[in-house]
Design brief:
This protein has about 160 residues and is of the alpha+beta class. It has 3 helices and 9 strands. It has helices spanning about 1-15, 80-90, 135-155; strands spanning about 20-25, 35-40, 45-50, 55, 60-70, 70-80, 100-105, 110-115, 125-130. Strand 5 and strand 6 form a beta hairpin. The chain is globular.
Amino acid sequence: MAALISGCQTDKKSDQISVLRVHLQANQNTAGATVPVTLLRSNPVSVTIAHDPILSEANVIAARVIETPGGFAIEVQFDETSSLMLEQYSSANPGLHFVIFGQWGDKASTARWLAAPLITKRIANGQLAFTPDISREQADRLVLGLNNVAKKLKTGVSK
């Protein structure tokens, strides 16, 4: 009986998917191409972003939660084409922010703007790391879902 229950839980975990959208901070003077968003639940900050994301979960090869001094971060590895885009955007826009949206469940409460890391240098390795405004448990669920999406896209399985 325990094996049956364990098997069901494993299947449920492999079905979890997550959404990740990386937008670039933008000048709000670009009519129709930008939108204001609010980040950080404890001390909200408004940021204007380009309407269309530059990267998404479809571009993720792998994601993981990493330990940092005083907490954790999420590190996302993008595919080759998206790595070139990340390099291009990061080298052309120092001083701006990547603004990151995530969803890790079916409910609207599990979807929000997670982070806005400052672009300080060219990112040439295809890895974007950020400290999200979510709990460790939520970060684990987001990463699990991103890795499931990556695996499904790699094997050509779609739902």
